[in-house]
Specification:
Elements: H1 25-40, E1 46-49, H2 53-67, E2 77-80, H3 83-91, E3 106-110, E4 113-116, E5 119-122, H4 138-147, E6 150-156, E7 165-171, H5 176-186, E8 191-195, E9 219-225, H6 240-248, E10 253-256, E11 258-260, E12 266-271, E13 274-279, H7 286-298, H8 308-326
Parallel strand pairs: 1-2, 1-3, 3-6, 6-12
Antiparallel strand pairs: 4-5, 5-11, 7-9, 7-10, 8-9, 12-13
Helix pairs in contact: 1-2
Length: 331
């Protein structure tokens, strides 16, 4: 018997955990994609391409650089985290390395949400009307991130907020009900668990007779951190590391979209007034670094290419220290 849950959201955009509508967002993310593609990618690099439309904006910028004879980027190879990412790269003429176990020098991904304190990131939320997205590559992106020299996440300024709403969890269909019940027990009072549907995303609470099936043949359960006592504010996830450990220990879990700060080196926060590069070092004060950098940028930060070389040098130093600390850790 399938677990019963009361349906919520009424089928309208903005239901719990749904990524916001992309109106006007990709133009802003496109500027961030151009910034990181031109600042962080050097000739001869192996570049990891994450899943989802934001990461594909970086792919487009890399293709433009390769076609520009005056750019100085003569060669690179790419490793795709998903079939869609690979198809996009191939369509744009980027060379793909399809060998197993390739370690990219840098991996670009897009965050659905970034929580500054404590640091945490969500990927793979359902987006209305999208044919495919990062939810099709939850495990592949993390496997690629574990091998990457640098992991860079793009995020829109509106999505820097307390971690709330849906965290996607990919589960084995043979024991999805057991995983459902165990996750429900783990987060009782803090979250509801919905099985994602093939049509309508997480707007159907148990997936009905047509649950969404990933390319690897699995289901997705959305762990939706929700409001308490009728409050309009979503309940934040206060201990990201503990939540990750609990999810990964659950029977039948194959992958999930919750990332800790050990899994990401840099975040490019994009908005109308500019772009802020935020190193996420492992040292104490990492959360404060993100908060201060984001706050300084919103008050009128850099909005053009001036100073990019100096910023890239600082970023490299921070990444080397951070990566040496976490090189053996899985995301």
């Amino acid at each position: 018997q399938q677990p019963a849950r009361q349906q919520q959201g009424g089928g309208q955009a903005g239901s719990p955990g749904q990524a916001r509508a992309p109106s006007g967002v990709y133009e802003v993310l496109g500027s961030a994609a151009e910034f990181v593609a031109r600042t962080l990618v050097r000739d001869g690099m192996v570049v990891g391409l994450g899943a989802g439309p934001g990461a594909q904006l970086v792919t487009q910028q890399l293709a433009l650089r390769l076609k520009d004879p005056d750019d100085g980027l003569a060669s690179l190879s790419c490793v795709a985290a998903s079939a869609d990412a690979g198809a996009c790269a191939a369509r744009l003429g980027l060379p793909l390395n399809t060998e197993a176990g390739v370690a990219p020098d840098i991996l670009f991904i897009e965050a659905d949400l970034l929580q500054p304190d404590p640091l945490g990131m969500v990927k793979g939320r359902w987006v209305k009307n999208a044919k495919a997205g990062a939810w099709d590559a939850l495990a592949q992106e993390k496997e690629l991130a574990a091998r990457a020299g640098q992991v860079v996440a793009l995020v829109h300024e509106r999505d820097v907020a307390p971690l709330s709403g849906a965290v996607p969890v990919e589960v084995d269909p043979a024991c999805w009900e057991e995983a459902y019940e165990e996750l429900d027990d783990l987060f009782v009072g803090d979250a509801e668990i919905w099985r994602r549907a093939a049509e309508g995303g997480l707007l159907m609470n148990d997936g009905g007779e047509a649950p969404y099936v990933t390319p690897r043949g699995n289901y997705i359960l959305d762990v939706i951190f929700e409001a308490r006592d009728g409050s309009d504010e979503r309940l934040p996830c206060h201990d990201v590391d503990a939540a990750v450990a609990s999810i990964e220990a659950t029977q039948g879990v194959v992958a999930h979209g919750l990332w800790t700060r050990r899994a990401v080196d840099l975040v490019a926060v994009a908005g109308e007034q500019g772009i802020s590069m935020c190193p996420l070092e492992e040292a104490d004060g990492g959360e404060q670094n993100v908060r201060e950098s984001y706050a300084g940028w919103t008050q009128g930060g850099q909005s053009d290419g001036e100073g990019q070389d100096e910023e890239s040098d600082v970023v490299d130093a921070d990444v080397q220290a951070n990566r040496a600390e976490r090189r053996g850790d899985a995301p």
